[in-house]
TrEMBL record:
Organism of origin: Gossypium davidsonii
Pfam assignment, any one: START
Top-rank lineage group of the source organism: Eukaryota
PANTHER family named in the record: OS02G0468400 PROTEIN (PTHR19308:SF13), PHOSPHATIDYLCHOLINE TRANSFER PROTEIN (PTHR19308)
Listed GO MF terms: lipid binding
Span of domain START: 88-212
Any single GO CC term annotated in Swiss-Prot or TrEMBL for this entry: cytoplasm
UniProt name for this protein: START domain-containing protein
InterPro entries: START-like_dom_sf, START_lipid-bd_dom, START_lipid_transfer
Amino acid sequence: MGMMASVSSMEFWCILNLRATLITLLLILFFHLSKKLYSKFFPPSSVLHLPSPSSSTSLPESQSRIPEIVSDSDLKFLIDNLDEKLDEDEKWETVIDKKTNSLSYKAKCCRPKNKPLKYLSTTVFEGCSPELLRDFYMDNNYRKQWDKTVIDHVQLQMNTTNGIEIGCTIKKFPLLTPREYVLAWRLWEGKDRTFYCFIKVTIAETSFIILSSYQIHVLLETGSSMADIKD
């Protein structure tokens, strides 16, 4: 009986190992076939790559003009949302509420019916002017030094007439492949040293060419001895 049990156990483990080997081989085969099909239908040229800074500034003047893709109607939408003129039906949930002696951060989210998920965060900096905060927040080249998720950023175009800028940023998040973000943004200065920024973002995930888009609304304003960001 002991001998038969031992043989049966060995046969059982052999069968399991054989199945595991077959499954592994099938997965490898599927991976190679998928890779070939992907390279056939999505050649490398379809993946967006950051241009060099020199190429972005060598465009003729006629081609460097940017249409008003961020308009005054976007500014109105931004003000209505960041001033928390919220619908009565919307229920906001607190996600984060942290505070130190010189900094506080609050974040909340809203899940409206049949609409995209919305986030609203407020960061308050003590002893900081809104102008300094504006220069810090809007400096994408300096962001590469302190934002560890940013791999590279290049400004593609800038319209000096209406202030619209277009840039491309590559970000890398933990456990994810790098993503390329094409951003168009515009900054307005309001009363009482208040700044409004509207950003439109398109994401290209280089591994699968999955495109999506979203908006970022930023309000920089000042109190008696502090400045805060709402986005």
